[in-house]
Amino acid sequence: MEGKPDADGVRIRAAVPEDHGRILAVCDDWWGKPVAHILPRLFLDHFHTTSLTAEAGGALAGFLVGFPSPARPEEAYVHFTAVSPDHRGTGLGRRMYRRFVGAARAEGRSVVRAVTAPTNDRSIAFHRSLGFTVTGPHIDHDGPGVDRMCFELCL
What we know:
By secondary structure, the protein is an alpha+beta fold. 28% of the residues lie in helices and 31% in strands. The chain has 4 helices and 7 strands. It has a 7-stranded mixed sheet with strand order 1-2-3-4-5-7-6, with helices on both faces.
């Protein structure tokens, strides 16, 4: 999953466990609210080879944390993704998703899934623009009072 810098100077590469601290340092700011608690280190310890980081001039420009489902061999799942405010609107999020989806397809996966809060209009619109089917809100999806919108992309 290594990549050369694109025309805009952003290089997408496979994540490494050491990226965890860099991601935590920016994710609350990039999301505009506390979200670091939903990205424990275990995701990069165990799924770094299928997760991505994007860098521009050595600085973190974006990341995508995803993995092939061990329980559902036809599925891959995107747990968390974000793009730096300085790189929004450049197609970086699409490029990371395209890379992840391509790897899932090459591994024989036929579905990519993700979820978000019903209030995350930007994520819902982004996933729709990528061709995901969006359903929900699914009441209590992640526990009492934790509703979710579900995304599904058939490959």
